[in-house]
Design a protein that fits this description.
This protein has ten helices and 14 strands. The chain folds into two domains: 271 residues, no CATH class; 99 residues, no CATH class. Strands 1, 2, 5, 6, 7, 8, 9, 10, 11, 12, 13 and 14 form a twelve-stranded mixed sheet that branches. The chain has a two-stranded antiparallel ribbon with strand order 3-4. By secondary structure, the chain is α+β, with helices and mostly antiparallel strands.
């Protein structure tokens, strides 16, 4: 498969820089070709890798599928240099503050393909990374649904003197590529933080600054990529109306301007919490309130629990309309009769799974109940996967 980049490309066409729909690339070392014909000729001269997702193997080096933009073409190296937003935001040990990191692009004794040169593709715009918090009893199990998973970040690039990189390639309204041999880059993040009741209680912001250059002028030495981590900073705000400001006063004006550019990109294209997570949070808290009201019997009227006590478990499942109601039915009806273990009780999750599998209903109804389990029942059960010490 070949990726053609032009002004009408969509987000799903973005670079096979590592996957069909890349969301995390930041800096991608490539072989550049002045014309598409040169790269196509090199493709014809090299046997395709058996794993088609990895593309060609040139000079003993695996590469991803090529990209074409106008006359120029690029062949991204399949490397593991930690130059994705995920690795940089996690603090890749290969990149230490003030200490350059070196990666060999091309062996001095190997012959480059005709017309090929070293270049870096810099990805600017909306990117994504993931976080996973360490599990602890200080947090309810469902809280991790708010914290863990994918988050937006924004990247920005400039030349070393602060000027805009030239020759940008528009991917979509949120993403551009630049091809250059050196540059300065910034990654800006801002995430909403939540308390143990699921309420927003502030923001966590972060900033990573990186510069790179390609050194390949000396034919007696290997072609090298030099990358240096200039700054990696974070700040926390305990206000819900204002993000924390990352300290920048000690940086030169070019870095300050680039950091502001990344922040502006974030504010334009990114969100501190995704729509999906926010929708789940609001629905979950609403369901939890209904469930807790049911347990307290605070309304003085006949409750849903009163109505299902006299029903069989099959009949009770049939009347469930909302996730909190399914939780009530499970609390009352999902007991040891759904254990399959000979020596001890099954986990709560195993019991519920067996109960739903035995429920006499259409597949659509079973899928609906399973979604309720995933969205509400399982996250509220601290013993969901617990089967004893």
């Amino acid at each position: 498969m070949t990726t053609i980049i032009n002004d009408s490309a969509t987000a799903n066409d973005l670079i096979s820089l590592g996957s069909i729909a890349d969301i995390g690339s930041f800096l991608v070392p490539c072989l550049g070709f002045a014309t598409a014909d040169q790269l196509m000729a090199e493709q014809a001269n090299n046997q395709a890798d058996e794993d088609t997702s990895r593309g060609l193997a040139i000079g003993g080096r695996a590469c991803f599928q090529p990209l074409f933009s106008g006359r120029c073409s690029y062949l991204p190296y399949n490397r593991g240099d930690g130059l994705e937003v995920q690795s940089l935001l996690e603090g890749d040990p290969r990149l230490q503050l003030g200490k350059p990191s070196w990666a060999r692009l091309w062996d001095k004794d190997a012959t480059k393909p005709e017309g090929a040169y070293n270049v870096g593709l810099m990805v600017e715009g909306r990117r994504q990374f993931s976080t996973w918090a360490r599990r602890t009893t200080k947090r309810p199990a469902w809280w991790y649904r708010l914290n863990d998973g994918s988050h937006d970040c924004a990247t920005a690039w400039s030349r070393h003197d602060g000027a805009e990189q030239g020759g940008n390639i528009t991917i979509d309204s949120q993403t551009r590529l630049y091809a250059a041999r050196s540059g300065r880059g910034a990654i800006y993040t801002m995430r909403t933080t939540f308390d143990n009741e699921g309420r927003p209680d502030g923001f966590k912001t972060g900033l990573v600054l990186v510069e790179f250059s390609i050194l390949d002028r000396d034919p007696t030495k290997d072609d090298m990529l030099k990358v240096q981590l200039v700054a990696s900073r974070s700040a926390i705000s305990y206000r819900t109306d204002r993000a924390a400001e990352v300290h920048l006063e000690d940086l030169d004006p070019v870095w300050q301007g680039l950091a502001q550019k990344a922040r502006n990109t974030f504010e334009r294209f990114c969100k501190p919490v995704s729509d999906e997570v926010e929708q789940w949070r609001v629905n979950f808290l609403d369901q939890r309130k209904n469930y807790l009201d049911q347990k307290r019997f605070s309304r003085g009227a006949a409750t849903f629990f009163d109505g299902i006590k006299s029903l069989s478990w099959q009949e009770a499942l049939q009347v469930v309309q909302e996730p909190w109601q399914l939780k009530v039915v499970i609390d009352h009806h999902c007991d040891s009769r759904f254990d399959t273990s000979v020596h001890r009780s099954d986990t709560n999750g195993s019991r519920v799974g067996l109960m739903l599998s035995r429920f006499d209903c259409h597949q659509e109804r079973r899928a609906e109940l399973q979604r309720m389990v995933s969205d509400f029942v399982a996250p509220t059960d601290p013993l969901w996967s617990y089967s004893g010490d």
